[in-house]
Amino acid sequence: MAMSGRTIWPLLVLALLLAASAAAEAATLSTRYPGIDVRPGERVTLSLKVATRAAGEVVSLEVASAPRGWQVQFKGGGFIVHRVFTEAGEPTFVDLQVRVPADVKPGTYPVVIRASGASGQSTLQRSLR
Fold first, then answer.
1. Separation between Cα atoms, residue 41 and residue 28, nearest integer Å
2. What is the tally of helices (H) and strands (E) in the chain?
3. Which of 2, 22, 30, 101 would bridge with 69, disulfide CB 3.0–4.6 Å?
4. What value does the CA radius of gyration of the chain take, rounded to a whole number of Å?
5. CB 31 within 8 A of CB 47
6. Parallel, antiparallel, or unpaired: how do β-strands 120-128 and 35-36 relate?
7. CB–CB of 98/38 below 8 Å?
8. For the domain bounded by 5-128, which CATH number is listed?
9. 98: enclosing H helix or E strand
10. DSSP designation for 57
């Protein structure tokens, strides 16, 4: 059975609204400091905000990529963490700790981190130089 243009239009609008709603509820990952200057051998801590609009969600954290030899980990409450719990509309804060190798050469180095939950995922790239 063929569908007319009148029948398809409401279905398309509904599909777009559902997609926008899902995107609005996806886990988000952000920081106020998109670029940081570091020195060889230094350890820096960057505060990250993890948020979701979904009602109570466990969000997994991962370092998607980092320069070879750099130590990168998430810390929260004094612990190394790989997951956080978020309440709807209330962000959870976690620290990203980065230890720069003592022999690092001058340059710009990207660190990519990812937050994934049932509502979706967010990827954040930050440059360290």
1. 30
2. 1, 10
3. 101
4. 19
5. yes
6. parallel
7. yes
8. 2.60.40.10
9. strand 92-99
10. E
| Per-domain residue ranges of the chain | 5-128
Angle, CA 120 vertex, CA 119 and CA 121 arms, to 5°: 140
Q: Does residue 5 sit in helix, strand or coil?
A: helix
Nearest to 40 by CA among 87, 99, 96: 99
Residue-level length of the chain: 129
Residue 56 near residue 26 (C-beta atoms within 8 A): no
Contact 24, 119 (CB under 8 A): no
On whether the pTM is more than 0.85, the answer is no
* Model pLDDT for residues 80-107, shown as the tens digit of each residue: 999 999 988 899 999 999 999 999 999 9
- Spans of the chain, pLDDT less than 50: 1, 7-24
Return the structure tokens found at 53: 């609009």
